Amino acid sequence: MILPIIAYGDPVLRKVAKEIPEDYPKLDALIANMFETMYNAYGVGLAAPQVGLPMRLFVIDASAFADDEELSDDEREFLQGFKKVFINPKIIEETGEEWVFNEGCLSIPEIREDVTRNAEIKIEYYDANFNKQVEEFDGLAARVIQHEYDHIEGVLFTDKLSSLKKRLLKGKLTNISKGKIKVDYKMRFPDAKKGR
Question: What is the rounded distance in angstroms from the CA atom of residue 10 to the CA atom of residue 12?
């Protein structure tokens, strides 16, 4: 089932999400719906707050990046199969050189900006079967995880921009929150009289 994606301005995107208990009802269905919603919107990641649920859960499928010719063969091959579910994740450390990449967000359509992040992360999480994992990621995989992890911490990529950039984007962000934007996927707007 395709869920509406919550637009910028909704308070749920600013909440620090709560942990999910292992016996959470219909978790498998929620995960399947999140993947379906993400694919429908041509995204590579989606966090539970983006579908209105302040829970520590996000899904990623970075295979769309595997076509990027600027990546090494190894990274392209890795991203081709990089589809994961992260439940109750905790980033243990962020290391490596900081690097800039142009990011966007399904909750903030039509805005893309350069964001600086660390190149490597170590993360502890539970997979879809509630098995505990501790893994290290780098490059684009690390970046997508960091972006989605920010969502469950109530942080948006626009928060990482300079004050000047934020001022320049203010009008566009206001329009998004009011639903004055056209998107190809189902969204819920906090200030709109009528959602799509």
Answer: 6
Mean pLDDT of the chain: 93
The verdict on whether 148 is a catalytic residue reads yes
pLDDT category of residue 195 using cuts at 50, 70 and 90: very low
Task: Establish if 193 belongs to a structural domain.
Answer: no
Backbone angles phi, psi at 76, to 5 degrees: -60, -45
Q: Measuring CA to CA, how many Å separate 47 from each of 75, 156, 160, 193?
A: 23, 11, 18, 25
Length of the chain: 196
Q: Which of 75, 103, 113, 148 is catalytic?
A: 148
The three-state DSSP-derived secondary structure of 45-78 is: EEEHHHHCCCECEEEEEHHHHHHCCCCCHHHHHH
Residue 141, domain CATH: 3.90.45.10
- Quote the domain boundaries for residue 83: 5-183
Task: Tell me, yes or no, whether 119 lies in a domain.
Answer: yes
pLDDT in tens, 55-94: 999 999 988 887 777 777 888 788 888 899 999 999 999 9
Tell me if 151 is assigned to some domain: yes
Tell me: pLDDT of 131 over 50. yes
